[in-house]
Amino acid sequence: MKRKVFISHSSIDKPFVRKLKTDLNQNYIDTWVDEDEMHAGDILQERLDFGLQKSTHFIIVLSPNSVNSEWVKYELTYALKMIEDSAIEKIIPIVYRDCKVPTELEKIIRLDVSRETVYFRHQNLEFYGNTYYDELNKLVKSILQKGTMLTAQEKDDIIDRSGTLLGQGGLGIAILFKVVGFKSISKYLNTYADKNYVSSLKQEEINNLNPIVLPMKLKDYLSGLKFGDKILIKSEKANSEVELDFVNYSRNNSRIAIPLEARKLLKVGINESYVFKISYDGKSIEIYEAKDI
Question: How far does CA 285 lie from the centroid of its chain?
Fold first, then answer.
């Protein structure tokens, strides 16, 4: 899948954004920048939403101008929701000029070019130092980085704590994942699920769907799961089970998305981590508290 980055910024920082866009394009990374994508007669919010939905990464250029921009705040809020829904891979903050970093971004590793001196050459912004180019190199590598894949050794090292090796040739795998929910199941299906299948469903069927989204790293292990396949989820803690419908794999490799009612039945908490023992056919999953395995 080709990478495309949405660059959120203040119009006052446009010279920097144009340089960043050019340098990313030179590295075969597509960009979404408002001045290129928006035209007379467009509805601003709709175009911004469209650009975000079509992007794999979200870059936010931080400066005193951008952190006070209402539109930048709107774009960041939307991007944070998309991260929750696994709709984009990463949010990457770039500190262009010294400013107070938004609280939501404090725990995210940032790139920083705020101490660089700039000048204009042939009407294009340039830097005197090397910091920008060092940070650009990190940025390009981060964007082009493939999703995490387990090595052969890592596969062999997946062992459940009762002592049974669950590697190649075993009954399945056991691995720690965080449980998350859905902000909107209908929105998720309309955006990320198989369009032909969803369009064939009646609204009642969509309302009754109990979706589960699995991490992409499991795709290499499971046998051809497709949209709508039933997965039986068993909870040791709750002594209960529930049948969910597989809808997709997520690019976020650290979590499994389960709807609210299913979480209640299984007695698993949102944003809490559990050990998932998953059969190789993907038809059954057992959930254990990490301390119990």
Answer: 23
Distance CA 251, CA 258 (A): 16
How many other CB atoms are found less than 10 A from the CB of residue 71?
16
Summarised one tens digit per residue, pLDDT across range 128-168 is: 989 999 999 999 998 987 543 333 343 333 333 332 333 33
| pLDDT tens string 232-242 | 999 988 889 99
pTM for the structure as a whole: 0.53
d(Cα 88, Cα 251) in Å, to the nearest integer? 8
Of 256, 243, 232, 248, give the one whose Cα is nearest residue 197.
248
Q: Is the CA virtual torsion 222, 228, 231, 237 positive or negative?
A: positive
CATH 2.40.40.20 is the classification of domain 152-292: yes
Sign of CA dihedral 211, 216, 219, 222: negative
Per DSSP, helices labelled H in the chain are 14-26, 34-37, 44-53, 70-84, 131-144, 152-156, 185-192, 195-200, 203-208, 260-266
Domain borders along the chain are 4-144, 152-292
